[in-house]
Amino acid sequence: VGLLDGDIYGPNLPRMLGEHRQPEQREGKIIPLDAFGLRFMSIGLLVPQGEAVVWRGPMLHGALKSFLHDVDWSGLDYLLVDLPPGTGDVQLSLTQLTFVAGTVVVTTPSAVALDDAAKAVDAFQKLQVPVLGMIENMSYFVCPDCKSRHAIFDTGRTEERALALGVPFLGAVPLHGAVRRGGDEGRPVVVDDPGSEYARALREIAGRLAQR
After folding, report:
1. 77: phi > 0 → left, psi -120 to 50 → alpha, else beta; which?
2. Nearest-CA neighbor of 176 among 209, 147, 133?
3. Which of 7, 27, 67, 163 is in the most buried spot, having the most CB atoms within 10 Å?
4. DSSP 8-state secondary structure symbol assigned to residue 93
5. How far is CA 148 from CA 138, 143, 151, 190, in A?
């Protein structure tokens, strides 16, 4: 599995995977870094930490083209591209530069987020990219003491919207501090706490996505 950070303005993968080494080049190709069995590439590996990338659309297009064609992705079964929110330049460039097998829309249970998610679904359908499903993030909280579920931001609304849009619902990710800490500290919860409910939810979503 390869993971390409398509969010040029907000490249977070180096922090989330705990890997900040500069990639090497071999025979004219950039060699992606390896983290937890994932091969990944991000503009965050090439610019100083904390430095903003202030580029217009054509430069974004060029960077994405380079990451797709100048990085050695050989031997992969899947290449996942983490896109920025919305329906902007990066999404359009991606569909112009390569064949996209499908897209996944991640949202939270709020009406504001779901309205934006529905626009993303519509945009990809207009670009003739199959929408493989929707995921609800921060869906519910499991109390560590009583073990009961609490829908802090409401829950189930993404599944309802997915049904209305005719899109598969891939699953819900619980709201938990460990998920946030894993991302901040570069230790994904599926590695750090594989038996937890939140790690199990992420694995099940990955399995449904692979089936799609």
Report:
1. alpha
2. 147
3. 67
4. H
5. 16, 6, 10, 22
Take residue 61 and report the two structure tokens written for it: 């297009």
| Distances in whole angstroms, Cα of residue 196 to Cα of each of 137, 142, 181, 182, 201 | 16, 11, 14, 13, 9
Q: Given the structure tokens 């998610």, which residue do they identify?
A: 117
Q: How far, in Å, CA of 16 to CA of 183, rounded? A: 4
Amino acid type, 191:
V
**DSSP 3-state of 54:** coil
What is the H or E stretch that residue 41 is in?
A: strand 38-41
Asked whether the CA dihedral 31, 34, 40, 45 is positive or negative, the reply is negative
Closest C-alpha among 129, 115, 133 to residue 169:
133
Chain centroid to CA 179: how far?
A: 14
Q: Among residues 25, 80, 15, which one has the least CA distance to residue 50? A: 15
How would you class 195 by CB atoms within 10 Å of its CB: exposed for 0-12, middle for 13-18, buried for 19 or more? exposed
Structure tokens, 174: 């619980």
